[in-house]
Amino acid sequence: MPLYWHLLKVVPSLQIVVHRIVWSALLVSAWLLWKQGRGWLQAALARPRAAWMLALSGLLIAFNWGLYIWAVNAGHVVESSLGYFINPLISVVLGVAFLHERLNRVQWLSVALATLGVAWLTWQLGQPPWIAIGLALSFGLYGLIRKLVAIDAVSGLGVESVYLFLPALAVLLWGETHGSGGFLSGGWGVGIDVLLVIAGALTALPLIGFAFAVRRVPLSVVGLMQYIAPTLQFLLGVLFFNEAFDHDRAVGFGFIWVALAIFASDGLWRSRRQAALATT
């Protein structure tokens, strides 16, 4: 994803976001129309609390996309990866705060270590890592709302896309008529126009694939795989984009990586133990 948005760096971040929303909405709506028929939207909104909660989750995911795209093209890939590293722990804290879930001692230790890592980075940098915190909180709250709404992933994304479509289209058209756009006018080039359209598929297809895969892959495996993306982002930030990663940042990241290793190991051990008990 950072490499893809880097290819679009000549396009203003807001324009990338609205293109991403528009083309994603068209793709997901077409998919749902094909799979579920013309009544898919009415059926989705008929679920309890779905209408306003999916409107809120749509705003959160749009904010998350916008912040991430801006951060990548502004040279903050490493800090963006930090946001997705701490996101699982933010989700755990939100579960405790809003869903009355309970944590064991090992999980609390993980949360404490991650908090120390963020505190260390705040002290060394002179300010909190706002990009990372913004990404983690927006995606964590998004996940919390989607957990509370009894709707499958693809239909939920479809409703969110419908809510965001008209505002995004309005911003896109305004930009095209006021000099900040260049789509199909030669301003950015044919290659950039194609990449903007494909951005919709790049948004929707992984989420659709996840919706199917999560039913077939053990959750313990899914939990571990969620760290692959931020790891790749971090490596790209350091090795490809040549962003700074000094000793002070290494200490802060180290606290968070240890916290994640403890958290993931505990989850894997518990999953295997439950599977063994079920077999017995």
Q: Provide the succession of SSEs.
A: HHHHHHHHHHHH
| Total number of domains | 2
Number of helices: 12
The chain-level structural class is mainly alpha
How does the major sheet shape up?
Answer: none
Counting DSSP E segments of at least 2 residues, the number of strands comes to 0
Distance between the termini: 43 Å
Broad shape: globular
Residue share in helices?
A: over 70%
Poorly predicted runs are none
**Oligomeric status:** single chain
Radius of gyration: 20 Å
What's the average pLDDT?
Answer: 87
**Approximately what portion of the residues adopt beta-strand conformation?**
under 5%
Q: What distinguishing features does this structure have?
A:
single chain; 280 residues; mainly alpha; 12 helices; globular
